[in-house]
Amino acid sequence: MSTPKEQDFSLYQPLDYDGLVLMSEYFDAGGPGQNSLTASFYDLESNSFEKRILSRLYKDLDKISERTSYAILNKYEESLRPFIKIIRKLKERGLVKDVFIDHRRFNDSPAFSRIDITPSIDDTYNTDGRKIVRTFGHSSGQDLISMVSKSIGEFLERYYLTKYSRKNFVTNSYVDLNRRARALDPKKLVSFSEEQQNQSNRFAWTPEHRLHWVQGVRVSTGQKTMLPAQLIFWNYISGDIPEVFLREPNTNGSGGMFNREGAMLAGLYELIERDAFLIFWLNRISPPQIDISSLNKDLRSSILQVQRCRFKCHILNTTLDIGPPSFVAIILDESWVGPYLSMGGGCHANPEIAATKAYEEAWGVYYSLRSKKDSHPVYELADNYRPFGDPSLGQEERLHLWANPKMREHIAFFLEGHAQDIQKVRFDFPRSFATTRDELNFLVKRVESLGIGYEVYGFEVRDYFLNHELGYNVTQVVVPELVPLYLNETFAPLGASRLRTVLPKLGYQIKRKFNTFPHPFP
């Protein structure tokens, strides 16, 4: 896997840990990109007396911050209070190093801002996994509340799913462990082809191989089940035993929310979203395209606006047999000023929400890549590139590969699907539920109805500060049969049976060969 690099925040505006340097007046006026992004107490105009008074509510924050705290100026104040409290606690606890906002505006593209939260990785940060130096939590968008919420949530997800100690693991082979405890059979998880296993013994699992295990649950029954630890922690290192890989350790399927059901639901939707994309991509199938004119007013207006700036935007329907609406959004910068291709994904019970999530994620990728353009040139495959065999092609290289305008020919097939009116598509899934618990139960039942290997398992982080002081839940969801996301080419799940079995159910022919070009998913 490629080694993550520390992100350059030299062009970002540092945010006060507690006040978050909340640019709420600016957002309240209509969104990013219209005027000055921040407003400190001393910068407020003389006629803003009430705002000056309001800003004094945060004067105590200056006492515990090394930077100037900023005024919360308008309707966002009450909504942001819980998040300010969380940021303060994370700072006091020593988990957060910095909070940044990137509010640079490119005149030839829509206005999005980005918030990044970086962890404090020092001697007090204890883990037996890799120490990750890059950002843990980030979000982009045009809505301040949503951005702050998402960045904190992602930070907590990723931070707590890096902290583990091998002394808390059970170490045993599946054969021996299953004699005294219920355990997930790794045979269901092995997604590498016979050829991949023959080429590398690190992929060749047998029931006698010893693995590290942690306790999880089967979500539908609550039954305790031992799960391979490498599926849970995205910075996983086996360390003391020569452990084989069952699949790539990454953040796929992690979720965080202020209730357990919401966290599990977020992780499960994410697994479904990535499974769907990879089935279309690896089989070289063109997903249906959503007619932009059929989208809701806000999303439609945004897309039409960016198209006037020489961008092309595609919303592709990747929904498969499980049912919940799943989409990927692809943004093409035809001016070639910025990265050529940026992609995002979204899965949700409500198709409009799913499509919007995909669209916003794609713009987040675009802005991230464009901000690095000068320091990170586009990536090109080596002349001797071997499909699914280049260990140097990781997430960062993949994104910069697809920033290259030469990728036009490689994405063309994916954009040839027939048009669909999103209002007329019959998604076999309810658009809404009375409670999050109802939604989770329905989705789990739907997934498990597909048969053996579709059992839904979950791991819950148990930490007093996280669960009780913050009131937050972080989980990792595992469904053996779903095609797992891979970011390093050598981990492509070419032996995943679902890549083949789902096609006839949807009216597609089974493909003889897989698409060998690296996928563009971020």
UniProtKB/TrEMBL annotation:
<dbReference type="InterPro" id="IPR003776">
    <property type="entry name" value="YcaO-like_dom"/>
</dbReference>
<protein>
    <submittedName>
        <fullName>YcaO-like family protein</fullName>
    </submittedName>
</protein>
<dbReference type="Pfam" id="PF02624">
    <property type="entry name" value="YcaO"/>
</dbReference>
<feature type="domain" description="YcaO">
    <location>
        <begin position="139"/>
        <end position="522"/>
    </location>
</feature>
